[in-house]
Amino acid sequence: MSCTLVVTVGMNPLPLAASIHSLASQLKLNRIIPVVSSVSEEELGRVRSLLTVKGVPESLWQLPAITVDPANPEDVEAKLMAGVPKDQLLHLHYSGGTKVMVVHSARMISMFPQWSTSYLDPNFYCLRSYKLSVDPMDLRRTFVVSLEQLAELHGHRIKKPKTVSSAQNDFVEKLTDSTFSSPDNIDAYLRWLEQIDPR
Known about the structure:
single chain; alpha/beta; Rossmann fold; six-stranded mixed β-sheet; 6 strands
């Protein structure tokens, strides 16, 4: 059965991008409806750009974002009720947004006939869900981004100094490629981090 993904969008774009990427690969999505505030619209644009590069079809974003007052429960509920199709299976992903956005989006979604929810568990870097089975894989291994993509996702650019020798440039590129370009390298980096800072 096809599913409409409703996502609450906050100010941290990486968890949202990784979560949508994972859900798009696991669910048969027919559309994505973001719930944003006026201050999180830029983050949504950067998330959409990265996800398009990562293979999430642009056509899933066919409906406009639902812009809400992030501190007003009545506004969140009224706009969700007006903007979300009621005849679809709805899945709410709530890793982003304010508590008001999350709680009242979940309240509204639960009033529809078929619904489920998920969030990104920050302790284990995997999706947790209610009323839906999703693979609890470590998203650090399945959603790999380059340093340039990570900087762009957060609204920045990596500038190379004007006086960089080719040897320095080669070193930086090799370091980036060897550290962040594959899940195996990320695993090795995470093991190293655990050795120097066991928690």
